[in-house]
Amino acid sequence: MSTVDLADATTSVPTLRFVDRVNPATRLAAAMVLTTPLLLTVDWVSAAIALGIQLVLFALAGVTPGLLVRRTWPILVAAPLAGISMLLYGRPSGTVYWEFWLAKVTDGSIQLAIAVTLRVLAIGLPAALLFLRVDPTDLADGLAQVWRLPARFVLGALAATRLVGLFVEDWRAMSLARRARGIGDHGAVRRASTMAFALLVLAIRRGSKLATAMEARGFGADAPRTWARPSTVGAPDAVLVAIAAAVAAAAIAGAVWAGTFHPVWA
Amino acid sequence: MDRAPGAAGPARVDATGWGWRHAGRRRAALQGIDLRIHPGERVLLLGPSGSGKSTLLHALAGVLGGDDEGEHHGRLLLDGRAPAEARGRAGLVLQDPDSQVILARVGDDVAFGCENLGIPRDETWSRVREAIDAVGLDLPLDHPTSRLSGGQKQRMALAGAIAMRPGLLLLDEPTANLDPVGVAEVREAVARVLDRTGATLVVVEHRVDVWLDLVDRVVILGADGRLLADGPPSVVLDARREALAAAGVWVPGVPLEVPEATDAAAPGAGPAISTESLGIGRPRGAVLHEGLDLVVPDASSTVLTGPNGAGKSTLALTLGGLLAPRAGRVVAAPRIARGIGDAPVRWRSRELLSRIGTVFQEPEHQFVASTVRDEVAVAPRALGLAPAVVDARVDEVLQRLRLDHLAAANPFTLSGGEARRLTVGAVLATRPSAVILDEPTFGQDRLGWVELVRLLHELVNEGTTLLSVTHDAAFIASLGGHRIRLDAQASVAAAAAGRDGRA
């Protein structure tokens, strides 16, 4: 029986210079430091500055154009789609170039469309690329050992990710079984609801067995726990967070200087 | 709590008048258990389904839960302490290989128990390597656990347990879901571990012959949750052989009362389902086999055997019209297709019902209704039969499979044997010309097994074509009139029936 292999996702990915030496938990922090300020303003300058610097930095880390397209194509597709909807339905202002029913292309909506497209890219690309090679186990180790999140919570969530692959298999088998049972022709909604119920039952059963197996191995005791895999932070971690902060600062400063800074609360 | 890393040595178990009642149940799962297990003893724990064997094992492992899970009477002690207070003294391996994989890499999974016991890092890894070596798992520490076979997963769980250096090893039907190769692997690993550690062993298992050479004591629980017998294996088994067999335990030396396989297909009986240069594989998955030319003979029983991962289930689903061929064709004979084209995968879901029925390996995958009665009625209703006819068919099937007393029960609450009978019954209700079964005897106790095999013989005698994916030697001996063997490579050998041709 083959299960969906979460480990496979990380084995075929090329290495990234520098980023790979940073603890996964720190990469999560860096992504938040970098993208949170970009969520606070809707202008094209800050997004363009951030995106420009990011592309240079990721190219230095070893991200080739081919790799960029392969690993981030959903973002590359989503960004212009978000832009087009802004172009047609964004708040109109200035010259009207084209109009059809509710859709209206104006100076304002063109500007908004560019800003939104750049912003989706500037937020989505670093998030995807920083986590290119993150193994869930390593991330959990970082969250528990470096960030000191409760081990019970982190390891419970980590073990649960093992079950996801089983659920995918369950769902496939159940769809075939629906066809074999004579209810595969019509009523997709009703069929999906019986499958969702069965999956819930299986999930609870598997989950309680997994919990028993973990408890039998001493999990959940009050005694202090050791960690077989060290998860540490060092100079590269500090550098990555500093870079992230600098990029965000440059983007916001550039927008303020250009006079386009427009916070979402204003 | 004693968590000293070197606190090894076999453990002692003392139970005095011990009993347990699950919260919300009227009847006690176990009661009045008086049992002393000396350090280093190896005990096989037997009993019918529902006699509380697993409950006793969970109690010894200290994972039965607190007062909100149930209430206990008497005393149960592990080395003189309550088992829950003695974490790490008992190591537990459960039945389902998939549900006890905890982490993504083999080494991390085995190290998990040591971490929880607070073992220092260097010692953890030396224990992990030692444990993996002891169970004969010759794999790198970063090997993905998702790529392990069932037998390998069970050996990994065993390694995870013994890395904690437990004085008591508890095995809860560790081989019930494995093929014969996996069973042998796990049994050998347990034997090696016991020789190295001298740990006390308590193993629950329906199949007595697997463990008989390894244990020096047999304890039997009765259906009422009380101790029924206790002593050396030969004495206890000799005295209780028939009673145990009647309770569903696989005792060696009690003949299975089922017909032997015969080459039942009359000469001239053509194929029911055949293939032409068939290629099989899951959608978007790799092609597992190409160029398969097979014949499933009409109105007789055929078994499909071969090693794990060879693609037997995929082949069965393809023959049953549920997966599309990746190349070539599956051809249903006119007697089965009855005028709607000979490719089963092109048939509509409703058209499959009276032609080819498929019984899945996991009953839960095919349950769609909230009562046993509705479960059987789903397919006849989908066929568009009149309500009176549906009722008559459902009654007939429920009676035949002795499920009538459970008609109002939810399918998800049935025991393993009942669930299996229901899945077969739900398929029979539309009287398909051919029935395909995937590992129908997995995890079945002796009673469920005999019942199922007899039923399948009846179907063949009535003219139904059967194809069963199986590893079960006794099943093959009884229903392997025709045998198809699928090997891991792209080659297929169809072996004719015969005593000597047993896979």
Automatic annotation (TrEMBL), chain A:
Cellular localization per UniProt: Membrane
Q: What is its main location?
A: membrane
Signal peptide location: none
Q: What is its membrane topology? A: Multi-pass membrane protein
Q: Which UniProt keywords apply?
A: Cell membrane, Membrane, Transmembrane, Transmembrane helix
Per the record, what is one GO cellular component? plasma membrane
TM helices/strands, residue ranges: 44-61, 73-90, 110-134, 238-258
Domain of life assignment: Bacteria
Q: Which Pfam families match?
A: CbiQ (PF02361)
Concerning InterPro entries, the annotation shows: ABC/ECF_trnsptr_transmembrane, ECF_transporter_component
Which PANTHER family has this protein been placed in? SLL0384 PROTEIN (PTHR34857)
Would you tell me the protein name for this molecule? Energy-coupling factor transporter transmembrane protein EcfT
| Species annotation | Agromyces bracchium
